[in-house]
Design brief:
Elements: H1 2-23, E1 38-41, E2 60-61, H2 63-72, H3 74-81, E3 115-116, E4 119-121, E5 125-127, H4 137-151, E6 194-199, E7 203-208, E8 213-218, E9 234-240, E10 243-249, H5 253-256, E11 269-278, E12 281-289, E13 298-306, H6 321-337
Antiparallel strand pairs: 1-6, 1-13, 2-4, 3-4, 5-13, 6-7, 7-8, 9-10, 10-11, 11-12, 12-13
Length: about 350
């Protein structure tokens, strides 16, 4: 029954995409493919998983509740009140509980819930219906162990290690973006949610603002299967009528076991679909298949909205004084404990 349900859902997903494409004729490249090029943003109040406060709503927010839920959303309140800070007055310390230096001025998470097919969504995850990533018992244990690699202790507390830079998160080391901005699957974060798509007959290039990452995807069905695994995996793309389909295997192990969004094993397959559904929108769909971490395949949807803002250099670099301060502080504590 579960298998049949998944097949029906997948067919419905494809039909919805086909219907959307049939109602809109995208501009085309010289070779007749839909033009996906330009600057895009996925900033939104809707995140990968459904917040517990929206559990009773399911996937779709009733239209009569959209305005109130938007106004009361913590991120919107932060932007409206600037975290309660008063111009020309010293901070009173309250900002320490809201991300320290990352107060409202520094974040740009979006100001509305994602609108897809006329529906305001509570999560990117569309299956399972809970809107939650379906970790198996084994997957949860592996995730806990992955966290321990960066914390130095076997606990659920996400506190990164301080033995050296190798024990810090990849994003903190400026190797790849924080969160899963580059995917796969792609999700949004607190700020820097811009993307640039460059398209030729032979390649699709995703330039990701967070943190100046690039995915170069050849238009072919043959994976490279190289011994050296790229950060974002071995991705290949092909056209399914007017939808670009990208299949990815073999992420770099340090990125694949990431604990902040969705861990992946060596046997994982992530399928992404990019469909131009209007002049201002690209529908992004994804499916994650990984029996090592998950009890079932899971899927999601997100909207890329056209942006008139170009991408500037993120300027994340290994001279980040925060990293130096963390490690220096740890060495000082070690000296004091001797």
């Amino acid at each position: 029954m579960t298998k049949l349900y998944q097949i029906v859902c997948l067919i419905s997903l494809c039909l919805c995409t086909a219907m959307a494409s049939a109602q809109y004729q995208a501009t085309q490249t010289h070779s007749g493919k839909p033009n996906l090029q330009g600057y895009w943003t996925n900033a939104s109040l809707t995140k990968m998983e459904r917040d517990p406060s929206y559990a009773e709503l399911g996937l779709v927010i009733p239209k009569d509740r959209v305005e109130d839920l938007t106004k009361s959303h913590p991120q919107v309140v932060r932007q409206d009140t600037d975290d309660g800070q008063v111009w020309k007055k010293l901070p009173d310390g309250a900002d320490l509980s809201r991300g320290r230096g990352y107060n409202a001025f520094w974040v740009a998470p979006g100001s509305r819930f994602a609108l897809i097919n006329g529906e305001y969504r509570t999560s990117m995850v569309t299956h399972p219906p809970s809107g939650l990533i379906p970790y198996s018992d084994k997957g949860r244990e592996l995730r806990r162990l992955n966290r321990a690699k960066y914390s130095g202790v076997l606990s659920d507390q996400v506190t990164m290690g301080t033995d050296g830079p190798e024990s810090r998160a990849l994003g903190e080391r400026c190797l790849i973006g924080m969160g899963s901005t580059g995917g796969p699957p792609i999700t949004n974060v607190r700020y820097n949610n811009l993307y640039q798509i460059v398209q030729t007959d032979d390649y699709i290039v995703l330039h990701i603002e967070m943190a100046h990452d690039v995915r170069i995807i050849p238009i072919t069905k043959e994976h490279r299967r190289a011994k050296v695994k790229p950060w974002f995996g071995d991705s290949v793309g092909y056209w399914d009528e007017d939808t670009l389909v990208v299949e990815t295997i073999g992420l770099h192990p340090l990125h694949a076991e990431r604990h902040y969004v969705a861990a992946l094993s060596d046997s994982a397959l992530v399928t992404e679909r990019f469909s131009r559904i209007s002049d201002l929108e690209i529908l992004y769909e994804f499916q994650v298949e990984d029996p090592v971490y998950y009890s079932e395949n899971w899927r999601g949807e997100m909207i890329f909205t056209a942006s008139d803002e170009p991408i500037y250099e993120y300027a994340c670099h290994e001279g980040n004084y925060g990293l130096v301060g963390i490690l220096t502080g740890a060495r000082q504590l070690e000296k004091e404990s001797q």
